């Protein structure tokens, strides 16, 4: 067992569990922050340095800040949070989520590569140059398609934020 | 010396460098503001008032630490730390000097280089946001909201201007960016090419302005503007916890100045003073001195701008960030790409 | 920045202006829109203030030199034989708008005058330092000095008597 990977995974999973179980949304965000950071550490540990930096920059530095921003803008009080679901519902949800997770992970666990130790990363792996090369040669099409997806999301938010519905002239 | 000892020495030096800058900055802030307003400023404690920061620290230490009733205790205590730590981490990749022997005067030579600083500095917003929320005070909350919106807005332009310097030098490694500038000239002046001159000037200026916004400095200190928000996100903080916010902010300024120096102002090199091939201790000290001088020129400008320009309105701040700086930064980047292709082809 | 524009009107180009004037007017409008020239001007102004001599005095070490004619504390002048010039004519007490001068006279022991003051008291807390006493005095006996700092620990100390005024 690789100690760094184990600790990172343990911290990340524990923080994720805490994130899901907190009543207070601000605390959820704080635990999510810890989860994100441990994911970044995991990336670093796998020599994916560029990915780690971008993960911190985009997810913790921008997206989670937006989450916190919205949570604080609403600033829900204790009595506004709504009733908790009854215990059986929660238990069922937990079992369902775990089953789905198992379903996703099982094929990965079954592959022979998983059991074997990781091969050492090739020279320049995970650097800005190599990731950029990959994105603009081998994965150019998915990369551009993702940008289309983001544009669609942007248009969607623009339409939602419009003061008047589409089609009205004034 | 072993690598570990070297690392410890460099970390110790960087820590002392950053924390030691805080009293100097307090003094600069107070004296320069006084001079600009035609006053003398504090000059009674110690020679020329140089012990004034020490008096301030003693005052902070002896005050009572108050946690407001119904404040969120955990986050309230944690947030000053969250403000304090990220900028410190951001300094890890900044080369603060040339080499001594084979040892680079930089804590960690990561292959993601400046991207590391960018990503770590983006974490600084959490301390401000959570601190304001945890205070359970509507002024603090408003200050935090403003701060978080402002920081995400200006981070975009800041990131793009950092990328501009990266594009000019063709590498993300700060040591090699400095090296490139030694060979070709400062990035601020386009790295020796007339084609890139306007882009470099624009990028450097934009980066400085965005740095002002990122560090919550006037004219962009909407997060703590006392006229409408009492003290903004740190209204409820007292004694050392307030001092932590205070120090975190100043350290972030120093680190940001270090980044600007590295990316646009030629890093630790100044022609005629430092010699890049001189790896003796004299050369190392000289290069640290030059780096420090550049950083403090920028810090002086920070203070100077603060006491010159009035505060923006919040909508103006947002307009400026999204409708002016972001397009300019994007245009700059696109123009740089085209110029780069022309210059190479 | 619409709100900025409304408060900060750009100069209009005059009708029928030549090319040069049009260009200059356009540049002026541009410089207002871009802000940077005005920011630079502001920075230059603050820099000028930074290096100019300060108006503040380092008070206890450096004392302000009062301008000529400054009206501070009173004193009674003496002639070359050490006698007070005052002839107890009550002109100053009459002229005083604050009525803070109180004189008690007695016959003079010297042949050149009729009376001398036996007591001459000025309540410095009542005095408004207008200098009327000085103007009213026919013998040039009372005078306002430039001294403006004098500490007292009680009200009584601020009532100056003959001895105090003569030695002032």
Low-confidence runs of at least 5 consecutive residues of chain B:
none
CA-CA gap between termini of chain A: 66 Å
What does the overall shape of chain A look like? globular
Helix percent band of chain B: 55-70%
Mean of all residue-level pLDDT scores of chain B: 85
Low-confidence spans of chain A: none
Q: Show the largest interface.
A: A-B, 23 and 28 residues
What radius of gyration of chain B results from the CA coordinates?
A: 20 Å
Portion in strands of chain B: under 5%
Number of strands of chain A: 0
Assembly level: heterotrimer
- Give the helix level of chain A as a range of percent: over 70%
Largest beta sheet: strand ordering of chain B: 1-2
SSE arrangement of chain B, N to C: HHHEEHHHHHHHHH
Shape of chain B: globular
Over all CA atoms, what is the radius of gyration of chain A? 21 Å
Number of helices of chain B: 12
Number of strands of chain B: 2
User: Largest sheet of chain A, described in full?
Assistant: none
Task: Please summarize the sheet with the most strands of chain B.
Answer: 2 strands, antiparallel
The helix/strand class of chain B is mainly alpha
Overview of the structural elements:
The complex is a heterotrimer of chains A (170), B (345) and C (168). Chain A has 170 residues and is mostly helical. Helices cover 74% and strands 0% of the residues of chain A. Chain A has seven helices and no strands. The longest helix of chain A has 26 residues. Chain B is mainly alpha-helical and 345 residues long. In chain B, 67% of the residues lie in helices and 1% in strands. In chain B, strands 1-2 form a two-stranded antiparallel ribbon. In chain B, strand 1 and strand 2 form a beta hairpin. In chain B, helix 3 packs antiparallel against helix 4 and helix 8 runs antiparallel to helix 10. In chain B, 51% of the residues are buried. The mean pLDDT of chain B is 85. Chain C folds into two domains: 50 residues, no CATH class; 94 residues, Alpha-Beta Plaits (2-Layer Sandwich), CATH 3.30.70.3270. Chain C is built from six helices and five strands. Chain C has a three-stranded antiparallel sheet. In chain C, strands 1-4 form a two-stranded antiparallel ribbon. In chain C, a hairpin with a 7-residue loop joins strand 2 and strand 3. The longest helix of chain C has 16 residues. Chain C is elongated. Chain C starts with a helix and ends with a helix. The N terminus of chain C is likely disordered. Chains in contact: A-B, B-C. Chains A and B meet through helix 2 and helix 3 of A and helix 4, helix 5 and helix 6 of B.
């Amino acid at each position: 067992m690789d100690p760094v990977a184990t600790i990172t995974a343990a911290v990340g999973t524990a923080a994720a569990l805490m994130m899901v179980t907190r009543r207070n949304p601000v605390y959820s965000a704080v635990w999510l922050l810890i989860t994100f950071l441990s994911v970044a550490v995991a990336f670093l540990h796998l020599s994916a340095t560029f990915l780690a930096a971008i993960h911190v920059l985009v997810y913790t530095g921008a997206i989670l800040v937006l989450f916190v921003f919205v949570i604080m803008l609403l600033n829900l009080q204790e009595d506004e949070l709504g009733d908790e679901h009854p215990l059986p519902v929660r238990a069922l949800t937990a079992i369902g989520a775990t089953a789905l997770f198992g379903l996703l992970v099982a094929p990965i666990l079954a592959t022979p590569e998983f059991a074997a130790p990781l091969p050492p990363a090739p020279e320049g792996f995970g650097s800005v140059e190599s990731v950029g090369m990959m994105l603009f040669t081998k994965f150019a099409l998915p990369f551009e398609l993702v940008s289309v997806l983001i544009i669609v999301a942007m248009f969607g938010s623009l339409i939602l934020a419009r003061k008047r519905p589409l089609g009205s002239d004034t | 010396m072993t690598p570990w000892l070297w690392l410890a020495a460099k970390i110790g030096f960087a820590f002392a460098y950053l924390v030691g800058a805080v009293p100097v900055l307090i003094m600069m802030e107070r004296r320069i503001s006084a001079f600009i307003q035609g006053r003398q400023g504090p000059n009674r404690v110690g020679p020329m008032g140089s012990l004034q920061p020490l008096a301030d620290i003693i005052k902070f230490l002896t005050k009572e630490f108050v946690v407001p009733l119904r404040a969120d205790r955990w986050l309230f205590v944690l947030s000053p730390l969250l403000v304090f730590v990220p900028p410190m981490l951001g300094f890890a990749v900044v080369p603060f000097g040339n080499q001594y022997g084979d040892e680079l005067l930089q804590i960690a030579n990561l292959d993601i280089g400046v991207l590391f600083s960018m990503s770590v500095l983006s974490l600084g917003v959490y301390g401000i946001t959570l601190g304001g929320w945890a205070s359970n005070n509507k002024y603090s909350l408003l200050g935090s909201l403003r701060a978080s919106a402002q920081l995400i807005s200006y981070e975009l332009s800041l990131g793009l201007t950092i990328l501009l310097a990266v594009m000019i030098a063709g590498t993300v490694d700060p040591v090699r960016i400095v090296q490139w500038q030694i060979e070709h000239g400062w990035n601020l002046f386009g790295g020796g090419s007339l084609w890139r001159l306007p882009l470099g000037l624009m990028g450097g200026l934009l980066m400085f302005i965005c740095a002002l916004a990122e560090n919550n400095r006037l004219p962009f200190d909407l997060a703590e503007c006392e006229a409408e928000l009492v003290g903004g996100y740190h209204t409820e903080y007292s004694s050392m916890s307030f001092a932590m916010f205070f120090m975190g902010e100043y350290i972030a300024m120093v680190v940001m100045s270090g980044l600007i120096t590295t990316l646009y102002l030629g890093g630790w090199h100044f022609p005629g003073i430092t010699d890049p091939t001189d790896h003796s201790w004299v050369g190392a000290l000289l290069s640290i001195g030059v780096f420090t001088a550049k950083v403090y020129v920028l810090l002086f400008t920070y203070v100077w701008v603060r006491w010159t320009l009035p505060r923006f309105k919040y909508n103006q701040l947002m307009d400026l960030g999204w409708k002016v700086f972001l397009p300019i930064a994007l245009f700059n980047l696109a123009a740089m790409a085209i110029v780069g292709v022309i210059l190479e082809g | 920045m619409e709100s900025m524009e409304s408060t900060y009107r750009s100069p209009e180009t005059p009708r029928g202006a030549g090319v040069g004037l049009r260009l200059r007017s356009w540049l002026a409008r541009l410089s207002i829109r871009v802000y940077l020239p005005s920011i630079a001007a502001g920075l230059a102004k603050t820099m000028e203030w930074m290096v100019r001599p300060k108006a503040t005095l380092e008070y206890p070490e450096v004392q302000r030199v009062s301008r000529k004619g400054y009206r501070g504390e009173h004193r009674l002048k003496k002639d070359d034989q050490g006698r007070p010039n005052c002839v107890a004519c009550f002109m100053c007490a009459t002229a005083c708008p604050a009525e803070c001068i109180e004189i008690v006279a007695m016959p003079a022991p010297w042949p050149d005058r009729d009376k001398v003051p036996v007591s001459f008291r000025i309540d410095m807390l009542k005095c408004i330092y207008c200098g009327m006493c000085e103007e009213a005095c026919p013998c040039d006996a009372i005078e306002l000095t430039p001294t403006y700092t004098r500490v007292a620990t009680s009200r009584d100390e601020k009532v100056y008597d003959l001895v105090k005024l003569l030695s002032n």
